Amino acid sequence: MKITRHLPGAPCWADLDTPDVPSARTFYTALFGWKAIELPTGYVNFALRSEKIVGAIKLKKGEEHSAGWSVYFMTDDLVETTKAMEAAGGRVVSPPRKVSVAGSAAVYRAPDGALFGAWEPDKHSGSGLVREPGTPSWFWLSTPDVDGSTAFYEQVFGWTALPSTAGDATRVTAAGDADEFGRLTEGPVDTAGWTLHFGVEDVDAASVTAASLGGTVVSAPTDVTGVGRVAVLKDPSSVRFALVARA
Questions:
Q1: Secondary structure class of 86 (helix, strand, coil)
Q2: Rounded mean pLDDT of 212-216?
Q3: Per-residue pLDDT tens for 40-94?
Q4: Number of structural domains in the chain
Q5: Could you count the other beta carbons within 10 Å of the beta carbon of residue 16?
Q6: What is the pLDDT of residue 63?
Q7: CATH number of the domain that 57 lies in?
Q8: 190 or 179, which is more confident?
Q9: What pLDDT, in 10s, does the model give residues 97-119?
Q10: CA 77/CA 75 separation, integer angstroms
Q11: Which residues in 59-189 belong to E strands, given as ranges?
Q12: pTM for the model
């Protein structure tokens, strides 16, 4: 689905911090059919059908976070979002900063320890395609405190939270949007984090392809009520991500 403007509070972009950008380029372009566009700064935009989808950058020494996919949520006012995040009990990891003419970004850590970011757009409005094969299609937070995390993100981004039809998760949507973009589920302490799910037509076949490209299947393809068929994998640098064929 082509999108020109993400709703405030909705997931709008994702960055891959990786120790091996060339390996990531080879793996993800082969798996999803992306085109890699490298900027003079070393940052890589991955594009599909000429639309920017996600980005990648080499993980710097001394970074607080480890290699992984970082999810960014849309905001119309990054300064106010940062204030709301701190008032809700979160912590600033990377303060608001201008990213050339593209927009402004900040990175935070939620009270449960999960890393996430916020993006205020200028020339770059975020992922140009979503919820289809080869694009960001689902976002899943594992947290030891589902109720606390739900309240935190509601305060920061104005999310609408709904009980899951499966009874073991909280469904979330951006304010004013009827479409779910993710779920919050209970997970182990000290491992809280967002898992980015990329859409595919056939999860089973894509999992086999990923393994043949040097990836690892962490959780075999399975059907998840109300979501679709899902598999969790790691890329050749052991970065966790997932595949989903939405129901």
A1: helix
A2: 98
A3: 999 999 999 999 999 999 998 766 678 899 999 999 999 999 999 999 999 999 9
A4: 2
A5: 24
A6: 67
A7: 3.10.180.10
A8: 190
A9: 999 999 999 999 999 999 999 99
A10: 5
A11: 68-74, 91-99, 103-109, 115-121, 136-143, 160-163, 169-173, 182-186
A12: 0.94
Query: Do residues 58 and 2 touch, judged by C-beta distance below 8 A?
Result: no
Neighbour tally for 61: CB within 10 Å? 6
Q: Which range marks the domain in which residue 219 is found?
A: 136-246
Residue 9: left if φ>0, alpha if ψ -120 to 50, beta else—which one?
left
Rounded-to-integer distance, Cα 228 and Cα 44, Å: 30
Q: Phi and psi at residue 206, in whole multiples of 5°? A: -65, -35
Contact 51, 128 (CB under 8 A): yes
Residues 6+ apart with CB under 8 A from 212: none
Q: Of 121, 144, 178, which residue sits at a domain end?
A: 121
Read off the tokens for 236.
């050749």
| Spatial CA neighbour of 246 closest among 167, 161, 140 | 140
Residues 31, 32, 35, 37, CA torsion sign = negative
Count Cβ atoms below 10 Å from residue 100 Cβ, excluding itself.
11
Summarised one tens digit per residue, pLDDT across range 123-154 is: 999 999 999 999 999 999 999 999 999 999 99
Give residue 98's Cα distance to chain centre.
20
Q: Map tokens 């993100």 to a residue.
A: 153
